Amino acid sequence: MDIRIGIANTGRELTFETNESAAEVKKSVSDALSTGATHIEFTDARGSSYLVPTSGLAYVELGSDQSRRVGFVA
Asked: Which of 35, 60, 64, 72 sits 20 to 30 Å CA-CA off 52?
């Protein structure tokens, strides 16, 4: 699944692919915001970790859980 995160006062967005489901990502973001956590940790499909400050979150966009098709479709 693709994730795009907008961070306030930053011209670029953080984009990566993760193996987590949309429900898991939504739950981790909502839990962090509701408990007042200072950051959210994400792990991409290759094992890299990202720490995003909750105070700077502008938006979190979740892509579809469907895998991309490769090749020609008739």
From this structure: 64
Structure-token pair, residue 30: 């909502």
C-beta pairs of 59-62 under 8 Å, 24+ apart in sequence: 59/4, 59/5, 59/6, 60/3, 60/4, 60/5, 60/6, 60/25, 60/29, 61/3, 61/4, 61/5, 61/6, 62/1, 62/2, 62/3, 62/22, 62/25, 62/26
pTM of the model: 0.76
Closest to 58 (Cα-Cα) out of 22, 4, 21: 4
Do residues 42 and 29 touch, judged by C-beta distance below 8 A? no
What pLDDT, on the 0 to 100 scale, is given for residue 44? 92
* Size of the chain, expressed as the number of residues it contains: 74
